Amino acid sequence: MSSNKNSVTQSITQVIAASSLGTLIEWYDFYIFGSLAVIIGQQLFPSDAGASALINTLAIFAAGFIVRPFGALVFGRLGDLIGRKYTFLLTLVLMGGSTFLIGLIPSYETIGYAAPILVLILRLVQGLALGGEYGGAATYVAEHAPVGRRGFFTSWIQTTATLGLFLSLGIIVLTKNIIGADQFADWGWRIPFLLSILLVGVSIYIRMKMHESPVFTKLKAEGKVSANPLKESFQKKANFKMVLLALFGATMGQGVIWYTGQFYAQSFLENTCKLDFNESRYILLWAIALATPFFVVFGSWSDRVGRKWIMLTGMLLGIVFYRPIYQYFLDATNVKELQQSQLEKTSEPSVKTSMVNGGKDSLISVAVHKTLKNGMSFNEINTRVVPDDVLAPIETKTTIADVTLPSDTYLVFIALVFFQILLVTMVYGPIAAFLVELFPTQIRYTSMSLPYHIGNGVFGGLVPFIATLVASYPGSTPLSGLWYPIGVAALSFVIGAVYINNRGDENVMD
């Protein structure tokens, strides 16, 4: 009895390891782009594009999320027809190839607007591939897991999205520190994209050795494989009702909590609070490292108490605490107010001159590094464009950049980002088990993939773009963009609280 139990555990361990590695690499591939949005925007668009370059780059990033539901339909159907293993092996190849090619695309200066168009096409391929990956991996693990432990075992798959982000941030910071900031902004940003091909190769080798899900193998042997998974999923009233409930009562709210706590937090710290490149990423890296084990904690807990209220509590806490958290971020980095009373020392001005507008005008930048009494430091940069034919500058602009925090404030920032990622673990840890338990085996891959990727890819993936866009409107404040994730999470909370059953280990998958 004991040896049989150990054999089952070892089999499950191998399944989780093989599935998780491939999924982690796909998330790594997908998130490099978002982590480097500012630098990539400078490479893909004209040098004078300004803030629109970031918004356009975030739009390209969001495009990959928008097509994820279509990938869920295409690959979900394949997964329900031919099996889980070969379908998410195919998605891995597509994702890895697209990421590698993004690292090879020339900049705007070389090929003009062909650069963002080519990157957009590859982002769409990435989105399609990811649309088929997650449902396959989660279903594959769940169909191997013993009854009463599905929340625990599938929660390991749930860690891969955050660990993929952690890996991408780690490689980005390491590469930048090795080759230097200037070289990284010029060509070094391509290295994390190109490295992904090695990781994908290892994952393909491992996945080739995997066996098909025993539940699907039994279904196929009995001749019960669905002839038309799409039709059964969306034309049968009972199944379609579950698809809608999964979307509006769970994955929609989970998606906005996920992307606010990780991606929008990073974007806000870097672009609104003007934190130093490394500083913002170290904060996120520490928060991710500390919070990641809680995916397994909440996934396992959901086996005992059910999935519903763990997920909904995560949404509710985000609704209540997002604005106070981000208000603190703003107040703590408001150097214009702080330096009036705390300015301690100022460095000698650093002057840079470059030609703009086809060489007709000169761009003069004067940077001064200032340090406050509390330990905070930042660069104050004054830029002005001086035409060759007149003496007065066209425009003078003062910006703040590269803010570094005093140690006590730095720790508070880590704690607040950790709290946001803890909410991510609450909503995301149990959701794979919740979704696979909603649908019968013959249509599970298709049925669970669509609401997951609409909730995450559309509602969640659009958080950085919509929040940044809303905050850029005249009359808005830096916190205005938060109303989007707060509103979506609130709607999902109400629907989930009223209509979702508290599913847990009492549910036996067929």
The description of the largest β-sheet is:
5 strands, antiparallel
CATH homology group of the largest domain: MFS general substrate transporter like domains
In percent terms, what proportion of residues is strand?
5-15%
CATH architecture of the largest domain: Up-down Bundle
In total, the number of strands is 5
Membrane topology: Multi-pass membrane protein
Keywords: Cell membrane, Membrane, Transmembrane, Transmembrane helix, Transport
GO molecular function, one term: transmembrane transporter activity
Main location: membrane
Q: What is the strand and helix layout of this fold?
A:
Blueprint: H1 2-35, H2 37-44, H3 51-66, H4 68-82, H5 84-102, H6 108-111, H7 114-142, H8 150-179, H9 181-188, H10 190-208, H11 214-221, H12 229-235, H13 237-272, H14 277-291, H15 293-305, H16 308-332, H17 335-342, E1 343-346, E2 350-356, E3 361-372, E4 377-387, E5 395-404, H18 407-428, H19 431-436, H20 444-460, H21 463-471, H22 483-499
Antiparallel strand pairs: 1-3, 2-3, 3-4, 4-5
Helix pairs in contact: 1-5, 1-7, 1-8, 1-10, 2-3, 3-7, 3-20, 3-21, 4-5, 4-7, 4-20, 5-7, 5-10, 7-8, 7-20, 8-9, 8-14, 8-15, 12-13, 13-14, 13-16, 13-18, 13-20, 13-21, 13-22, 14-18, 15-18, 16-18, 16-22
Keywords: Cell membrane, Membrane, Transmembrane, Transmembrane helix, Transport
Transmembrane segments: 27-45, 51-74, 86-105, 111-131, 152-175, 187-206, 242-261, 281-302, 309-329, 410-436, 457-476, 482-500
Membrane topology: Multi-pass membrane protein
